[in-house]
Design a protein that fits this description.
The complex is a heterodimer of chains A (415) and B (414). With 415 residues, chain A is α/β, with parallel strands linked by helices. Chain A has 17 helices and 15 strands. Chain A is elongated and about 85 Å long. In chain A, 57% of the residues are buried. Chain B has helices spanning 28-39, 73-78, 92-103, 117-124, 154-160, 163-167, 186-209, 219-224, 228-238, 271-280, 295-300, 302-313, 318-327, 338-343, 345-349, 390-397, 402-410, and strands at residues 20-24, 43-48, 83-86, 107-111, 134-139, 213-218, 254-259, 262-267, 331-334, 354-358, 362-366. Chain B has a 6-stranded parallel beta sheet. The mean pLDDT of chain B is 90. Classes of the chains: A alpha/beta (415), B alpha/beta (414).
Chain lengths: 415, 414
Amino acid sequence: MVASDRALPLSGVRVADFTRVVAGPYCSYLLGRMGAEVVRIEDYDPVDSTRSYGPFIDNYVDLNSGGAFSALNAGKKSVSLHLSNPTHAAVARELVLSADVVLENFTFGTMKRFGLDYESLSRANPSIVVVSVTGFGQTGAMRSHRAYMNTVAAFVGLTASNGYTEHCPVPVGATFSDYVSGTSAALASLLALWHARETGRGQHVDLSMAEATMAMMGQQFMDFLLTGSVPRPKGNGFTDTAPCGVYPSKGDDKWIAISVSTDAQWVSLLQVMGNPDWAHSSRLSRHAGRLENRAQIDTHIAEWTRNFASLELSTMLQTEGVPAVPSSDPEDLVTNPHFKERGTFASQFSPHGLGRVIPNMPWHFRSHPGLDAFVPPPPALGQNNSDMLPRLTSAEAAVIAEIDGAVQRAAESTR
Amino acid sequence: MTEAVSNPVMAPAGPLEGVVVIEAGEGVALAFCCKLLADFGATVVKIEDPKGGDVVRRRAPVPGSAADFPGSTLHLFLNANKLGVSLDLEAAPGRELLQRLLDRSDIFAAFSRSGAHEQFEGVLSGTREDDGLVSVVISWLGLSGPWRDFVLDDFLAQHLSGMAFSTAVRRDDLGAEPPLAAQGHLAEMVAGLTAATAAITGLFARAGDGRGERIDVAIVESLASFLRHEVVALTFGAGLMSRHKRAVSQIAGVFQQPVSDGYVDIMIRTEKAWRSLVEVIGSPDWANLDAFATHPSRAAHWDALEPLLQADLARFSKAEIHSQAQSKGVAVAPVNSIAEAAASLLFSQRRFFAEGGHPQFGQLRYPGPPFRLVDSTSSRSPAPGLGQDNQLVFGGWLGCSAEELARLASAGVL
């Protein structure tokens, strides 16, 4: 690992993180990897459900080592408090008031019930930034609606514009709304913190996952607002170029994506294919002719591509100037030579000393090449109770001991 | 902060007031990154090639008439609130003017085309990151690595990143339903959001020690970062997940189901939520069967359960099941079209859509930013014409004389 001579950009920033599951933790993951001290304030009854999601390395089931939790909570600290207990809520408040940014994704009204709402906190610390992430926002007719990433995407129109046929929409994958909302929350946290440092005034950012998702659909909404057009599902054939699609390659459920948009790329593709007879028609030498005969071209290409592995064929085609890539499954992602060299996926140390590859960071800072090499481990539940609570709060030793006991019981009940 | 351009255009106020961003290059990701910075108060100077400008200007659909070409809807959306100049960066005088702009700027945001990274390095070599410039360079695959010069587009980026695979899970026929990319420049929009976040992080770095930073944002990696559950399923020992409906071992979340007038999406994560949903649909007898008593047993018997559930759901419209289920605390939402979403009372209550005047279209509504901040307004000034602000930026700000500007224009540099 190459050490940097610079502190990480967010060194000295403390984030009090009440978030759970995906969107909020991804936000605090980004902030934490950039140097912020992220303190998860999490319950032991019940624990964040992500701690129970597998898979677990070698089937060793515990609260601290599951894949889902590890992938989203690398490098954070953990203080465990049961907020429904007024004593614990008071301790949480002290901890929160030492922070610069507070992240939460409870249902509407929950933070107020714990005495941790923005109005109350800002009276004690006017520069505090609170970012609340909910499905549909803290105001409006749907502020109390239960929401998850798929229901948010459905409501805002993202799902309806996607699918193989017009008759059955298909939700966009990778819990898209969660990660988009998490990234948006990171941007919001940074901008609000920047503003607080300039003015001395914090704020409460009300981040709606629905609006964060809609902001990613700018063209669709702009088209609709200006022209009235509504996008319909078109499978992989939604571009106005041909051939452009996904074709079977060698192996079980393996595919290659090819996207030809110029006559020169078409000629190059045919050369790699060995100039097959079916392609000699002059109708196909121009874009309009290829669009018109798209289906027949796709059939011929699929007959050819299924003889090659997608990685091998993509490299061959790209060398000749034909845009093509493997349509990656997770195995393709972690074995891709380009991603390996760039540290797109990196090894994570774990409490058991076993390293596993997880997705790393979506950007690379030249001053910090070491971030590309490895990912720190996630925190054990309450692992920082004994160093943070006495230092930053007035929690009594007996209270801390009681909490540690409850955490241990929660951990043992999981195994 | 640098001395800001005196900007006659009404830009939104916001936390980035006084921050100057130079945008050089083309494409959706770069433009969206800089749009977000402009939306929160930065002065963004968008540099375009004098011969035609950003390709986004011509990407269909283009409203209005060809004679009076305002640019595509995408251009109108991505470039509101920006100043626009034309400058040939392949010409030496153009690069010299760029350096003078960067000397007065805080953030340099650029797009480096596949196969042109070395040429772009030449542009970057004169930048003064050690003196405090934050450079964010967006490209399809990054500035390093064996595939850095591969040619991509948004469709291919979604496939390479694994997003298309993840979209096409829970399928009946893997051959007929391959990995699926989504419309709407999804990869590029995510990369733009990612790059904006990275750029602000760079400003914090500079605030710490006065030094700038060089940040490399690959569009494919921005999206691949979302594939966490899918990758750890493999690397933590559960094996490569199958896209087939029957092979998915996750909890029976219910997900998308048909109703009388379309589809709804449902997420059941607890027994309480399941029981509430059953109550909403009238507590049918089948729901009492032992085979459907718990989450794991419902997952195991999903093939038998789903048609029974669908038969009962078919009695409801989207609006009915949405309202009744939410009143019981069940996460249900209608699968809305864009039109239905835009018309939703919720977004007008929350003032999601921004407004601004346009010389050709009158008052326009725009999709808003992902969130709002204190001291930020949601006004929109129209996307600039090509080279619209040359005089303001090169003359008024850099101090170029009228003769110099005329000479550069006649040489095709502006």
